[in-house]
Amino acid sequence: MDPKGRMAIPTRIRDALLSSCAGRLVLTAHPEERCLLVYPEPRWQEVLPSIQALPTMQKAARRVQRLLIGYACPLELDGNGRVLVPPTLRSYAELDKKLMLVGLGDKLELWSEDSWGALLDEPGEEDLPEEVQSLVF
């Protein structure tokens, strides 16, 4: 990330985003970890109703709504394949110069390099959900 908060999207990812959503993205806070979620705009529009439908009388659900919807920021790739990460989101995810952009199929996660390294160094959970235990790699 440059000093102005602009992040260059790697060419391979940029090309896929340009073809799938014309470079229109939604950037928001991850509700459980100090990273950001990057959605192609059409995918965000599919996810948004389910977030809005969460029960507002439950404190945890309201927190998820506040983070995901409250921090949601529409962005568009500029002519150089960059996006401007707003200061509030940079602060939330503790982003600095070195970043990790991690693909998760229909969305991306944006991490500071330090936070990503710390996550990888954490010990794995011993009680994996049954769905994970049945995966074959």
- Give me the Rg, rounded: 16 Å
How many extended strands? 7
Strand fraction equals 15-25%
| Unreliably modeled segments | none
The CATH C-level class name: Alpha Beta
Key descriptive features of the protein:
alpha+beta, Chemotaxis protein chec, 39% helix, 137 residues
Can you walk through the features of this model?
The chain has helices at residues 11-21, 41-52, 59-70, 87-92, 113-121, 130-133; strands at 6-8, 24-29, 36-40, 73-76, 82-84, 99-103, 108-112. The relative contact order is 0.20. The chain has a five-stranded antiparallel beta sheet with strand order 4-2-3-7-6. It has a two-stranded antiparallel sheet with strand order 1-5. It is 39% helix and 23% strand. The chain has six helices and seven strands; from the N terminus they run E-H-E-E-H-H-E-E-H-E-E-H-H. It has a single domain (6-114), classed as Transcriptional regulator MraZ domain (Chemotaxis protein chec). By secondary structure, the protein is α+β, with helices and mostly antiparallel strands.
